[in-house]
Amino acid sequence: MCTAMSFTVANHHYFGRNLDLEISYGQQVVITPRNKPFNFHEVDDLNQHYALIGVAAVMNDYPLYFDAANEHGLAMGGLNYPDNAFYADSKAGYKNVASFELIPWVLGQCATVDEAKKLLTNVNVTNRQFSPNLPASPLHWLIADQTSAIVVESDRDGVHVYDDPVGVLTNNPSFPKQLFNLNNYRTLSANTLANTFSDQVNLTDYSRGLGTRNLPGGMDAESRFVRATFNKYNANWPEHDEIANITQLFHVMHSVEQQSGLDQVATNPAKFEYTIYTVGYDLDKGSLYYTTYTNNQINCVDMNKVDLASQQLTSYPFINQQAINHVN
Ligand SMILES: C[C@H](CCC(=O)NCCS(=O)(=O)O)[C@H]1CC[C@H]2[C@@H]3[C@H](O)C[C@@H]4C[C@H](O)CC[C@]4(C)[C@H]3C[C@H](O)[C@]12C
Q1: Whose CB has fewer CB within 10 Å in the chain, the N or C terminal residue?
Q2: CATH superfamily, with its number, for domain 2-175+219-317
Q3: Residues classed as catalytic
């Protein structure tokens, strides 16, 4: 499972993502500069494009992005959508883009969600594999800029592009069902509540936080969708303090993280999914902040510190070593 969300705090814009999985693909933080060509199989190559920063597995010098943001503050993440995602063969008259090409194709040439929506009209997400040992993954995608968000789902009946008014995405079921399910939680509250049970029954407010008692705590994707959305909208944001905002963003993302041991992998019962990494993109500055499961310290990679006019990928392996601050 995974969780992604966009945040806007006063005039600061962020995009967060947890990658929950039991295996690693050797992913790193990867910056693709403007002149490193993106070659696609059926749509036009992008020889010059917007620069990207994100998390990717680099195979044959090709960045297979899990999530990324471009220099204009458009961000995108691919999240598991098993049993629902359907990728078709190439179809005449469509923009045929393989699932693994979608992130560079969109972020390479769109600066905003509106531009992405236009580009995505008439797209057909194809079932082409990157290589024989990397079959296409069943994904859906969250795309967000500083002001809005959309979700892209390629189902059996075609590609859907939904407005995402809450800027959150997890996994199954499909996005419209996740959004509708929020209605079931409309009485959740971060406030101290009155007794609406009955004025004939004496019920006391015996503990702080009772308004969140029915906030779902599960690892499942529906629970995380509700929890992530509630926590995002109710978190106090310091607004003008960048470090405090980043810190709060990580608190929200970690409120839906998967602790190892809680989510068994059905096909491999000895394994458990866990939050391998959490990223928080500063969409205004082009910085990527991250923590990993074994390193709670927030690390930062700034895309503007590399030569964005070059042609070479720059990769930074995740720092997984826990940094304990020994005080005596
Ligand atoms: C599985 C990952 C999503 C995390 C998630 O939702 N896990 C839940 C697993 S489960 O439902 O609970 O079983 C996704 C996110 C990005 C994906 C990767 C990226 O799409 C990049 C390439 C794309 C290639 O087609 C396949 C390998 C791959 C390297 C993908 C492997 C895998 O599908 C990743 C890592």
Answers
A1: C
A2: Penicillin V Acylase; Chain A (3.60.60.10)
A3: 2
